[in-house]
Structure formats: C-alpha cells, structure tokens
Amino acid sequence: MAFNDEQIKVIKAFCGTLIAKLDDLETEALLKTKANVIKKHPSKVLKFSKFDLSENEDFIKIFTDKLVKCFPRDKLVQINLIFNFFAKSSTSLLLTGYFKPFYELDRKQREFVLQKWSKGFKFYRNIFSALTILFNVIYWTSFDKYFETIGYPGPDPEANGEKFTSKINSFPNYEFIQVPPEGLELQFDVVVIGSGAGGGVVSAQLAKAGYNVLVIEKGKYYHQNELSLKQAESLDNLYESNGFLFNEDKTMYILSASTFGGGTTINYSASLKLPHYVRKEWAAQGLTYFLSDEFNESIEAVEKRMGVSSDAIIHNENNKILIEGCKKFGYHCGNIPQNTAGYHHQCGWCTFGCKYGEKQGSLMTWLRDARDAGAKFIDNCYVENILIKNRKAVGVKAIVNGNRALIIHSKKVIVSCGAIHSPALLRRSGLKNKNIGKNLYLHPLTMVTGFFPDKEINPYSGSIMTSVSDAVENVDGDNYGAKIETSTFHPLFLVTFLPWRSALNHKQRMLQINHFSSMLIISRDKIPGKITIDSNGRPRIHYSISNHDSKSIVEGIIAGLNIHVAAGAKTVMTPQFAIEEFEPAEKDPFNDPRYKKYIEKVREIGVEENASSIGSAHQMGTW
C-alpha cells in the first residue's frame, strides 16, 4: 500500500515535530542540559539541536516501508485513513483544532497539538501513543548518526573482540532440511512446532528417548557469527512483526520472539522459579501435579541443564541502584539466578541475541541435545495447519521460505509455538473448542526512570537483570501485584517508555541516556485477554488492562519512584503521559509535601488505556 503526496507531507510534519530543529532559546537550554556528553561534544550537540527529521528522505522511505512490512492490511488502511484526515482542513479541524492541514501548522502549533492529545480523551491518546512510538522507535533504531553525540555506542563494542573469538569454537552449528522449489513430503515419529522454551525441552527429551523428531521454527536461525547486535536489524530478524507487534487497540507494545530458539534467544538470563503461591493456587484448581515431588525434580533438572545459579552475578550500575534504593527505603530485594553456566555474563545487548553463547537458552542446550540425539530441523517454516484424520493429528502442512510446500506425516504433533501462535494454529486447523485462545496472560509491564547527573550508569551495559524486589507482589492479598526488576535501556526502550513531551525535552533526554536508571515494573495479571484469528489466519491479540491489574502496575510505579528517590535520583519520571517529571527535595524527600502530592497524582492518574506506555515481554499462555 503506497502513501500519496499529501500523506507524505503529513508524515514529514510529524517528523519535524517529534525530532525537530530547535530555535535559539531551545538550543541554549539544550546546551545547559546536565549530561557529560555536553562537555565532551559541545559542537556535536549544537549540530544535534538543529537536526530536523523531516529533512531526512531516507527516514521517510524506511518509515513507510516499515509500516507496510509490519502491519496487516486492515491496520494499514486505518493508518492511511488517519494520515488522510490530517491532510484535509475539515477533518484536521476535528483532530487539531485548526482549520488547515496538519502540515500547514507551524512547529509550535503542531507541538501544542501533540501535547494536548497526550492528556486528552482515549481516541487522541491512542493517536499520540501510536505515532510517537512508531516515529521515535524507527528513527532511533535505524539511524546511528547521533549515537556518538548522545554517548551510545551502538552494537556492543566487544562484539567482535576476544570475548567473542575466544568462545567461537564452543558454539553449536545446526543444519536445516532444505525444501526444493517443487516442495517436499517427509515422515517423522514426532513433529514439534516451535523451538523455544517448550519445544526445545520436549524435542531433546523425545530425541534422546529414540524417537525420530522434527523441529519446525517459523523464524530463522542465526549463528552467533551472524548476530549484529544492531537495534533495527535485531528487531527485523529476531522479533515477531519485525519488532512492531501491538494488541488490537494499540495500547500495548509487545516484544515476542520469532527466531530459532524462540524467547530463550532474546530474553534476559533471569531464571526465577515458579513461586510457591502460584503452584498452590493452581493445585487448588485441580492441578495437583504442581505441588508434587515430580514437578520439583523436573525444575531441578531444567535448572541443572541451563546452568542456573547466582554464583557468577556481577551487578551493573542499574542493579546496584535498585539494591541501594531498596535497602534505604526498607523494601525487599534479592538476587535473580542466571542461566549462564557460571559465566560472568556482562552483556547488555542480550535482548538482541547472545553473541557470546553464555546465556544457556535452547540454542546452547536443549536444541543442541536434540541435534546430538538425531533430531532434524527446518527454519523459516510457517505451519498453515495440522493434518487431522479420524480426530487425530497425523502431520502438518507448511510453507517454507514463503513459497515452498512442505507436508510432514507423523504419529504425533506437539504444538509449542507460544501463547500467541499456538491458539492461532489450532484455530486454522479447524479445532472448534470454544476455549482455544482464551485466558491470554501477558504480564503487562512498564518502566520508571531515575536521572543521576553525577553517575555514568550506561544502562545498556553489564548484566541486565540480576536483582529483584517483591515489595509490591501482593497488592490485592491474593498474590497479584508486580515485581520490580531492572532492564537494559537502549534508545529503543528509552523512546518507548519515556513519553515524548516536546522537541526540546526529547533531545535533552536522549543526551542524558547514560545517566538514566530504569526500573521494570512487571505485573502478574489476574484478568486475561484472548487470541482470535483474522481472515488470513493471522493471530489477533485482544487485551485490555483491567482495573484490578492497573492497581498492581501503579503500586509498582510508586515503589519504583521510591527506590529511585532513596538511591539519590535528582529527577524521576513515570511512563504516564499526564504526569510531569519530578525533582525530589535534597533533604528528607519522603516527608516533602510536594512528593506526597506527586505520589497522590500518580495514583490518581493511574494507567488507563493509552494514558501510559505499557508493554509485554512475557506472553505467558492461553487455553
């Protein structure tokens, strides 16, 4: 779907609003921003102040190509329609308050419109959230022109050094069945659809038991040699929808793997056991296995194979701030075991694949075991449907590389392609059970950010997630709440979870990236969503955060603020669009009436739909 000239003018106008050329007063303010890079590169910062994204023709092409590549046709039609509305005076009036096309407004008028949307009704917040995330994420992941200016190194500087080359011979290699243009038909005992945490384990166990196993993966395999650790390339290669997956109403940004090894390839090394209170809850519903010795033994076996322990943890600055803040405020805090087999895994780029093979995901463990036991593999393979005969699964019909037919006959079919794609596959295969796709849990998350002008935190470096606070994990008395952890903070995540407030504020915050500490608020959701499929069989994610779960997130945000303030943050920021940044008092900040009023406002505003930046990195399951 192409964009016409008027729509391109609208796109350029948004570019020139979100990442805009600053006027002289704004430039003066930018040069006074508290950040070490200002002193290091004053001339580059001055040049950055005059940068106008609307003048970057390469970005316009990448942006429009990305929209076409990442979104289904019906969503593209909606995007196209929105841009048309902005291009016409009559409909632009309804959206902006001005009787002229959006691109005819001056920069200050456009900025005012966006600021008004961020605090407006849900419809306007939807537009604000979707467009600010799309434009900023695509720019800051696709272009490195100002990386040196803001102090961000881009890909891991050690990626091709001794840390990598010294381990290169320990990385497993995988061979994949090649399907010819005319197609292929094969026979196996068991077909495993999905190569992640579930598919990896089951394929290894079955192959070692003597079964003839085939593992099918929708995404592609990338050897450690092929991992660039670049943001845009990693999103394109390793993530579902090229890193631009949203729920249906665009209120949640969802990061989900689509690569060999599944979520274990892109997730951090954190390896927390299933809490006992969850096991008790499930057992009370009839699933008594979760309180059995057999389940305990299975967990121990998995931990052993994945090298899970806390012995090799080295906390980065981000985790040190979490620990310090918790201790000073009186919150619980503890270490998170890591699946690193004893390695000091100090890699902040692991969300783009583990270049050093230290994270013991499926690629390094279960799939390797399956390979050694004789299992076969096919990647870039989309299973259209399961073959069913006499109410029994007897194989799969698939497409490889987008156009090559594959038929697999098998005695067993194991569906382990994640909470989003498993129900979609079952629906495409004609199964009618009304529960398929229901009870979708996504662990809604957000971030709280603290600014430490006197510290070089470099929040994208070092071990990502090695500490956790359970201070608010039981908000409702039924063990539903939120965990507070740390995250890597590449530009991708900064522009997603720090709301855009103005062109000046955006550039200031980018210059301060090395002074930010990010706390990840991950909730245990009680009220689920569901998966349906569209006319093409693609999964659609229907999920809204309930009032119950919103409270868990808000209490997590407040705890994250307390932790940052206790640790000495000079400014704290929430993901809420209507909450301004706050500077705590130097002395006794928690008894400051301003802070108490600020916390009251954070709780009052809450996280209603598209009033905050909300994401998901854990697609927990569906029925």
Categorize the overall geometry. globular
Oligomeric status of the shown chains? single chain
Quote the distance from N terminus to C terminus: 35 Å
Order of strands side by side in the largest beta sheet?
8-2-1-11-10-9
Helix content: 25-40%
Radius of gyration: 25 Å
Mean pLDDT: 96
Low-confidence spans: none
Share of residues in strands: 15-25%
Largest sheet: 6 strands, mixed
Number of helices: 23
Look at the helices and sheets and give the structural class: alpha+beta
Please count the beta strands (DSSP E, at least 2 residues each): 19
Structure, described:
The protein contains 23 helices and 19 strands. Strands 8-2-1-11-10-9 form a six-stranded mixed sheet. The chain has a six-stranded antiparallel sheet with strand order 6-13-14-15-12-18, covered by helices on one side. The protein is an alpha+beta fold. It starts with a helix and ends in a 7-residue tail after the last strand. It is 39% helix and 15% strand. The model has no long low-confidence stretch (mean pLDDT 96). α12 runs parallel beside α18. β3 (245-246) and β4 (253-254) form a beta hairpin. Keywords: FAD, Flavoprotein, Oxidoreductase.
